[in-house]
Task: structure prediction
Amino acid sequence: MDLKSGINTLFTDPDPDNAREFFRHKSRAMKSKLTTVQEAVRTMIKDGDYVAIGGFGANRIPTAILHEMVRQKKKNLGFAGHTSTHDFQILVGGECIDRCDVAYIIGLEARGLSASARRYVESGKLKLTEWTNGTLSWRLKAAAMGLSFLPARNIMGTDTFKYSAGKEIECPYTGKKFAAHPALYPDFAAIHVHECDVYGNARVYGASVSDQDLAKAAKRVVLTTERIISTDKIRQNPECTFIPFWCVDAVIEVPYGSYPGNMPYEYFSDEAHIKEWLTVEKDPDEFRKFLDKQIYGTKDFYEYLELNGGIGKMMKLRSIELLTDRQ
Result:
């Protein structure tokens, strides 16, 4: 049987025993994990790490963590470009990443393409290995299951497979050909959730994408949350716990933490602000001034919120999401 392999680089180690050796020493103590955005980014991410971001597109993204990665000038990071839009736009704006497993980047869905992200990719500063959103989901699932790969029948015979790091294999039971998608164990993951307790037992409402697998696959996990709730409330409905505490290393309460993205059932995306990003980044000099004002010139995420309308704007976005602006 002629078995093909993708020609691009595999950026992470898929060996489950190497990952298990790390997880064997990870604390699973049920203790308070409250910290700050600054401290989490300073202590949990080092230059060269491979990072993954939760959420879907510009929905439910941990913006405070992304801004702080830019502010602290994190460099040479690997990135999982999985359903990625404004998060990718922020990180390439700060030139934080130098390699990317790419499925969906550059486009901000119906809003258009990010000129800055496109320039960064075309500059050659970013090494790319191609996958699909489904493939990256299965790579995370393989890691969450403690495996080195999962077989699938997608992308075989396509240029996406050619430019991936996948391998064709022969099924030992049927002799049929499958694509083996290697497990993806990120060094660091940031996930924004609706609510969690101080230990990291978290609830997510709406689209969850691969965030449960991501929380289990990543070596270090920080949650930003719209609100902290009591553990008693978590225990009243344990079936609602989407991410369990033993996956989580740090918890930070960040109200409106997905801004300018959407947070389902909480607040709508700030389309005017996202449009401003897409417009100003067409000119590299103007984009640098924009980043200086919005990220480098603000000491934290709260100053960024104030700069863009503060609580008044957030309440307006909340009324749009809840449709109360029409009453």
Q: What stands out?
A: The mean pLDDT is 97.
